[in-house]
Design goal:
5 helices; globular; binds ligand FNR; oxidoreductase activity; Flavoprotein-like_sf; NAD(P)H-dep_reductase; FMN_Rdtase-like_dom
């Protein structure tokens, strides 16, 4: 069994991206289990707070990432880049200096958007810090999910043709990526 920390870039309760993340966990191979890791309660990273008694949410977050075999990011695009909540989470997990929780964790990136571009900007901006954090990020297949507002029915089931099959095959590829890197 591999344990995957799942980080969702939208913090709102009725997030379409959260629905997508939930759908992905249902389409994943049985060998994967998922922990939705909260990032909305992390104070902005500030070295002044990173003492022997950092904010409790930072410690909780760092421990949850440490416990994971891999990290799956499912995120919308904000202003052609990644949401600040994801970037802040990356910064919080990267410190204290020399004690980053990210190194070596195989990453998967799924971006989503109501438009046809599918969060391309967020997807590729997110890849930049992952290089420095030494996280092997799966390159192929890429996942840019467009048409986000019409993807689900009332029960959260995917209704657009072909999307479910694509996401299932993407999760199978990510499962293999994680196994190859742990
Ligand atoms: C957006 N949205 C957006 N969409 C996109 O495709 N490219 C973009 O650059 C942006 N920029 C952007 C900035 C900000 C601050 C917000 C709040 C939104 C729209 C976004 O994709 C849309 O709101 C999604 O539905 C967000 O996902 P959730 O919250 O439904 O998961």
């Amino acid at each position: 069994m591999t344990r995957i920390a799942l980080l969702v870039g939208s913090l709102r309760k009725d997030s379409q991206t959260l629905k997508l993340a939930k759908a992905l966990t249902k389409l994943a191979p049985e060998s994967m289990e998922f922990d939705f890791v909260e990032i909305g309660d992390l104070p902005f990273f500030n070295e002044d707070l990173d003492t022997d008694t950092p904010p409790a949410s930072w410690t909780r977050f760092r421990n949850e990432i440490k416990a994971a075999d891999g990290v799956l990011f499912v995120t919308p695009e904000y202003n052609r880049s990644l949401p600040a909540a994801i970037k802040n989470a990356l910064d919080v997990g990267s410190r204290p200096y020399g004690a980053s929780v990210w190194g070596g964790k195989p990453a998967g990136i799924v971006t989503a958007s109501p438009s046809g571009i599918g969060g391309f900007g967020a997807n590729h901006h997110l890849r930049q810090p992952l290089v420095f954090l030494d996280m092997p990020a799966m390159q192929q297949p890429e996942a840019y999910i467009g048409n986000l507002w019409n993807l689900f029915d009332e029960e959260g089931k995917i209704v657009t043709e072909g999307t479910e099959d694509f996401l299932k095959s993407w999760m199978e590829a990510y499962a293999a990526w994680v196994k190859a890197h742990i």
